[in-house]
Each structure stands twice: as structure tokens, then as C-alpha cells.
Amino acid sequence: MTLHTTIHLHNVPPGREAEYAAWFDGAHREALARLRGWRSADRFEVTPEQVMPDIPQPWRYLSVYDFDYPAPEIDLPALAPLLAEARDAGLIEDSTETERIHSYRMYSDWVSGPNHREDQPFSSVFIIPANFVPGMEAEYHKWYDEVHMPEVSRVPGFVAMRRGRLSDLQLEPRRYCPGSDLVMCAHQTDDLLFSVKDFSARARGVSPSGIAMEPRSKAGSVARTVHFFRRISGDRQWDDGIAYAGDLSVYPENFRITGA
User: Residue 44 maps to which CATH number?
Assistant: First the structure.
């Protein structure tokens, strides 16, 4: 069995958002349950809170599909007709060819940090289509696994991370993907702006927590973008403050406004 994740980045025609949601949680989810290896499917919507606020956010919606495939070469293509149903029904707005479907062979499942409340759902995620510098792949993976993933997962509200490599198997429409790798981070926070600001503050070494992230590895290419999405599917939603194993009292009351 091999863990694969497919991300579907897309837009929905104005006025048809409820129709898309009903399709996803109804007929689509029922069809997914009949596929070999299906584990989960969740929908997300882009957030106003972004750690790279100046870059474009071309997609309003993100769907994340997780499978543990017995035979990826046989099973992964079976997802394509199910996604095509939304396209055929006019539920995908693609006049500017923004729709993207990318499948990844994951290096691991979610790796949790000390903040993670495993009995509670995620509130949001960020995704990064990422790249490493040629000739430095081993250093890139070592930095992520031993340094960056542990430090990011200790930021208030940041709870787990996982990564994957773009699969040789891809679904139609096959369009340009800017990264060879996928980085995903999951959150449990009802104040994403606070969490994003402390993420940035720790990276700059100015967090009120006194915690500073290690310098970014030279093995990680700067050819990357970051996209934050809040979870909008499922019966249970996160509503329990900011998941944090440390002391939030060290942050000033105006931190979410000033950022440091």
C-alpha cells in the first residue's frame, strides 16, 4: 500500500457554491467510498490571512483526497472520472484555465507536533508547491525532517506537517505544476491571523515567545508559493481556541495587530 494525496485547486461559478458543496458531500463522496484505497476527502476555502500576502491566490477552493493505493498505476486514474463529473455539470469555472489537479506520492503521513489535539479536526491547512536546489536533495529532506517540520509544528495553532513528491501518474487536465514537491501544514486555531503572524515573527527571530526558527536551508529553492485554506467540509469544526503546548500569556494583547 502506498499513501497518495491528490489536490484539486479550482474555482466555482458564482451562485453555484452550494450546489458544488452538495455534490461533493453527496454523490461524490459516495462514489469515492467505492474506490480502492480511499481514506478521506476534505474541502477548503482560501483565507484572507496569508503569510505571503503579495502573491496571487488564483483558487478559491482546494479539495484534498487521501488514498492508500494497493496499485497506484491502476487505482489513481479511477479518480479522474469522478472529478470530471463536476466539470461536466458546469461546476468548475475554468475560463482562464486555472484548474489544477496534482497527485503526490507522500513521504509520510501527518507528522504531529506537541500542539496537535488528535481528537479534534484541523481548522485549516497551507500548501506549498516546493522545490529543492539541484544536487542538494538529500540536504533538503534532512533539513525539513529534522529542523523545519519540528519548528513549524511548534508555532501556536500549527499542529502537523507532511510532504510528498509529484507522482509520475497525473490526472487530466494535466497542467503546469510549479513544484516537484508538496509541503502541507495543518492548523488548529480559531485565530489564524495570530498564528500566521507568529509564524512570520519566529522566522524573523522577533517572536514574543523568544523562539526563533533556524535559518532557511540553502537546499530549499526560493521558487515556491504558499497558500492558506480554511476547512469547510465535515460535520465537526475546530472551535477550541489556539492549540499550543506553550504559554500564550507572553504574547501582548495587540500582537495580532502589530505582529511583533
Answer: 3.30.70.100
- The range of the structural domain enclosing residue 82 comes to 2-246
Our count of domains for the chain comes to 1
Contacts of 168 (CB under 8 A, 6+ apart): none
Q: What is the DSSP string of 125-138?
A: EEEEEE-B-TT-HH
Q: What is the pLDDT along the chain (260 residues), one digit of tens a residue?
A: 799 999 999 999 999 999 999 999 999 999 999 999 999 999 999 999 999 999 999 999 999 999 999 999 999 999 999 999 999 999 999 999 999 999 999 999 999 999 999 999 999 999 999 999 999 999 999 999 999 999 999 999 999 999 999 999 999 999 999 999 999 999 999 999 999 999 999 999 999 999 999 999 999 999 999 999 999 998 899 999 999 999 999 999 888 766 65
Between CA 214 and CA 56 the distance in angstroms is 27
Evaluate if pTM is beyond 0.90.
Answer: yes
**What is the Cα–Cα distance from 42 to 192, expressed in whole angstroms?**
19
**What residue type is 177 in one-letter code?**
C
Residue 251 within any structural domain of the chain: no
> CB of 173 within 8 A of CB of 99?
yes
Cell of 69: 493505493
